[in-house]
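Box S1 | Example of a co-folding query
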Amino acid sequence: MSKQHLVAVVGAGPAGIYGTRKLVEARHRVVLLNRDIKPGGLAEYGIFVDKEKMKTGLRKQFKKILADPKVFYLGHVTVGQNQALTLDEFKTMGFGAIVVAAGAQGTKKLGIEGEDCVGVYHAKDVVYHFNSLPPFSERNFEIGRRVAIIGMGNVMVDIANWLLNHKKIDQVVVVARRGPLEKAYDDSEFEVIERYLDNADMKQEIDRIAPQLSAVGQNVEEITKKFVKAGEPAEGRRLTFRYLCSPTKVIANSQNRVAALEAEENEMVLQDGRTVAKGTGKMRRIDVDCVIYAIGDQVDASLGLPYSRGAFVTNPEKLPGDPNPAAYQPYDPETKRVLDGIFVAGWSRNASVGLVGVAKQDAERGMKVVNEYLSSKEGLPSGEMEARIEALIDGLKKKGVSVVTKEDIELLESAEHEEARARKTWDFKYTSDQKMLEVIAARKATR
Ligand SMILES: Cc1cc2nc3c(=O)[nH]c(=O)nc-3n(C[C@H](O)[C@H](O)[C@H](O)COP(=O)(O)OP(=O)(O)OC[C@H]3O[C@@H](n4cnc5c(N)ncnc54)[C@H](O)[C@@H]3O)c2cc1C
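Box S1 (continued) | Returned holo structure for flavin-adenine dinucleotide
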């Protein structure tokens, strides 16, 4: 009995690509479908633009995995309801398993008044914009000179880095529900924006919230020593923090553009040993002309898996095994059954959690579950697999999808490298799908 299977992996970010490696190691063939033309996901389009060593290293690893003849990369193909392919269509195509590793493409809102006005953005859209991912790369973001970033994680740092070091705006105001010690960013990441910190303002802010910090047993003196440094903000650009503030309203001007952010001041209380923000009813106004939500993402419900509150629903049972297989199995709460043959991994399983290494580890554990599942099923002969892949590509082409293969990606990348060399930069990316497709077609024509 043949044990080799055809597996569809949806999403060629770190989870999809490292997961693919585990599947081909088990001698399965993988059709890797990716919404973006280029592979890499947030490693390509999220990790900050100047992290050359990290980006180049990851690209090399991804290239090596994709080069395996058992991997069929199909870029520029979106899977989901009303898209090029639905998950239901897949089920009829002879795939032994389908792995959804499409990241967390949905955006979270706060649900406050005014958040639909011009100048309110989601961090991921902004990050995609400055990392040159179409169509965000082509979209106009009305940034202005003073920007509030809501949230205090590493994504906030990346956005502040872009705003202060690249866009050279006047001020970034970080708005956080809790206090300085509850920051989620890493100090090593923060270094790129530290020189803009308005230390006098930080001192004032810590003095303002000192009673609330003391109330939960935090040492104000130590916090001041840790967070207030010497010196003026570099080049007159300021980075300030407004702690213990929960946004309640975006105040728009007469052109429906951001004029200010209204926030409720909080106190902190201890709950099960951790600090929790609690509104005081006292409002404050923060004058800004742009608001960026850096509060994490949620999965994309339109993929067509059972969905609840920003996440795909997975099997609630604790099944025996390490890793726990249930955690990777989408689950229909109505029928109380797992979706046979479908799995989730990476940020599609656990949105906005962890660095590339975490997504990699999650995918590797998940593929152990998938390989185990496949080992009990009859596989497909190799000729049959090829016929099914061809039928899939033909079907996509008939639907008018310009499918991009890994050979196409090589042509595109060679053109981008040449352009980068000509511009004397380490990296260059074409910023529209149309341009990328044209470049690929032109290179093919001259071969
Ligand atoms: C702003 C930012 C900065 C970061 N910086 C770092 C860093 O410096 N270092 C680090 O280690 N980690 C960093 N991370 C974390 C890291 O990027 C993630 O851990 C990792 O990329 C998650 O991998 P993933 O494959 O689950 O999802 P993603 O990387 O999001 O990949 C998802 C893939 O799925 C595809 N896709 C989406 N929807 C569909 C669909 N419907 N059909 C087909 N394909 C689809 C997308 O095109 C994409 O290629 C950063 C994250 C962010 C948001």
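The chain has a mean pLDDT of 96. The pocket of flavin-adenine dinucleotide is lined by residues 10-16, 33-36, 41-43, 46-47, 51, 78-80, 101-103, 105, 127, 155, 158, 300, 303, 346-347, 354-356, 358-359 (CB under 6 Å).
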